[in-house]
Amino acid sequence: MALLEIRDLHARIGDAEILHGINLTMDRGEVHAIMGPNGSGKSTLSYVLSGRDGYEVTQGDILMDGESVLEMEADERARLGMFLAFQYPVELPGVSGMAFLRAAVNARRKEQGLDEVDQLGFVKLARSVAKNLGVGDEMLKRAVNVGFSGGEKKRYEILQMALLEPSLAVLDETDSGLDVDALKIVSDGVNAQRGDNCGMLVITHYQRLLDHIVPDYVHILAGGQIVKTGDKTLALEVEKNGYAGIHNAA
Ligand SMILES: Nc1ncnc2c1ncn2[C@@H]1O[C@H](COP(=O)(O)OP(=O)(O)O)[C@@H](O)[C@H]1O
Ligand SMILES: [Mg+2]
Prior knowledge:
250 residues; alpha/beta; Rossmann fold; six-stranded mixed sheet; 9 helices; binds adenosine-5'-diphosphate; binds magnesium ion
């Protein structure tokens, strides 16, 4: 059974329909990239998948392991193993990063029928995972995302992902605001997470990220629809000819 199945998905924000019938099926172990020009609906798709308020699905369905998630709140989807890294991560002043991460990890563990990790055990776990990702201890002590640079926020999200071990990770424009070193850390983190238990949807405007995270499939989103699907060479085609060529051909 597919890990993720998006069926004829139509969605709107307020009165405006943004997604006009998206179809995508992803199995465990696969990495799918979604590319598209600005305003094509990439971020909207990630928000709709996450179950964010204000985004209304008007037609179609989203299934995880064959089960529709449309009626589930965002936190329920997260406990089931859906992880979203947003283009613009929110700052949570006053919320300790360690407490935040531990609560998220324990909510997920509980759903999986595993014991919760205690504070001390979690600090150890978080430090070792952080170290592997090049995230400083100092960042762990701060409030969630507060005062983080763009690159730091992205690293922090990769840290969350590594700790949560999601079955479905959706990464929106994880390359924006990253310098070359940070790009490498993020893509190494993503590649480490890759495996038979996890499927990944990597949403990006640029081909650059896909040099480091080589996708199994590339989908081009334009005007709220997938206009073309191919393998990794499609990303190179976009790099060479731009989106206009592909859209016109479609
Ligand atoms: N909150 C909103 N209200 C109304 N329209 C929106 C809102 N957010 C995004 N849009 C519109 O939806 C379309 C898709 O935006 P978005 O999903 O952010 O595209 P992308 O991430 O591909 O750049 C754009 O036309 C944008 O103006
Ligand atoms: Mg976007």
